[in-house]
Known about the structure:
Strand content: 15-25%
Low-confidence stretches: 1-38
Mean pLDDT: 91
Shape: globular
Structural class: alpha+beta
Amino acid sequence: MNNVRPLTRRLFPAAFGLAAALVLAGCAPATTAPESGNDAGTPVAGGTLVYASGDAEPSCLDPHVGGNYPQALVSSQYLETLYTKDAKGNLVPWLAEDSTVSQDGLTRTVEIRQGIKFTDGTALDAAAVKANFEHLLDPKTASSTGYLALGKIDSMKALDAATLELKLKSPDNSLLESFSMPWVAIESPTALKRSQEENCAAPVGTGPFKVESWKKQDAVNLVRNEDYVQPVATDGHEGAAYLEGITWRFIPEAATRYAALQAGEVQVIDNAQPDTIAAAAKSQGIKHLDAPRPGASNRIELNSSKAPFNDSKVREAFIHAVNVDAGIDSLFFGTAPRSHSPLSSVEPLAYSAETLFAYDPAKAGELLDAAGWTERDPEGYRTKDGERLSLVFPVSTSQSIPAEQSLFEQLQATAKESGIEIKINLLDLSSWYGELFKNDYNLVSAPYTKVGPSVLSILFHSDSTIPAPSGYFANLSQVKDPALDELLDAAGSTADEAERKDKYAQAQKLVLEGHYLLPLYDQQNHFLYSEKLRNVGATTAVATPTFFDTWLAK
Length: 554
């Protein structure tokens, strides 16, 4: 198995073999390098890469609108960000040239790189970036991820063509991390003046590819940006991408995607299933890219705003009643190491507490007895005042792979042994969102990707129980704890790195010990690709692959 870990864009002379790669937020330098120039062969220009995605097809190709991972995957090919990460996980400018912050932390000045043009000919300047931020913060855009990332911006002003001044409501030490995400990527201000329908169909960026057409329910066709010049020179190839284009297909069925890869109909598939990854390891013609996402771990959140999880004893009992480890061991073939943290393992400030999550039915029983769930109905489920201990668990079939759905079924079975009923409702994405909006859930597994530990504020600050303009709210455990809010506010505003680390550790400890979530594993990001596709391994700051320096061998 070829586990290629994400690398960074090479922004310095002696670096890695991929010229346009990005690193995961806070990730250490990769220990397994992608194919070097020699091993990969002599680059070949031309050809069209066919990519098959198992994610739900976006309703809009502009990641400003909404802001989900499928949008980030495809838009990373045609949009670029102000900042990225270097090989050591440090933030470095990309479309931006530099940034400074005032001593009180309330004024952020961003210097915009000059001489860059969008593919419609519009120049990149401070006014263009201002137009993008205004677009993200406009409620009519219905942004979620980008809107929350820029939430502390109070006002902005283009001082000149190269200088953007941002006034903040409060200090935000995560703002540059936010600038590295595809959901805050920079689009042509000329194109943004079009209707949302037009812009959703073909956003205009500065990247190595551009949107040529989109046939819904089939594919997005991207073509090479012949005029592309990297914002920062690297020691990789110069000029346009090697590939002539990318056909971005949507194939929801996992077996069909893998069969298409085996047959040579596609060269890359995402959402690779654990059993498929294990099978592919035995194939000479298929390689594996493992790129865990930054930000939050994949987790089950417990809705503390309503019964029965408004009782902390019941939350703790549930956590001890489900056998997560056995399910992961039997279903994931070693592709998903268990997490005991709210944050991804690629986040250096992740705090882990394994002892809180032991499978212990006896302890679960004691806690349920103490909470008053002492009786059993004829089916063996616990009851209290005539009500069954029943949990509603809506699951998005487009965001949860089959192996994960099987894991949920195993948790359902072990919970039953402790007298807890879990009702798993498999739903399409729209219906799943509908259940969340109606607060019709006790358990939920909702992926959320953001660069850096500030994702904790989005997931657990009481302010995040208030919906964004898109209607989505991210605090799905619905924690409202003033002590937690104070910790998160302090962690997000301090200029002292030691204090930031300490406050985020305290916040994570509070969340874990409050039994508001059940960590599972890193958000999975497995890609399988043909050996004919060379120089694969470049990813953005949120672990989406990029194909600027990739080519198809003859």
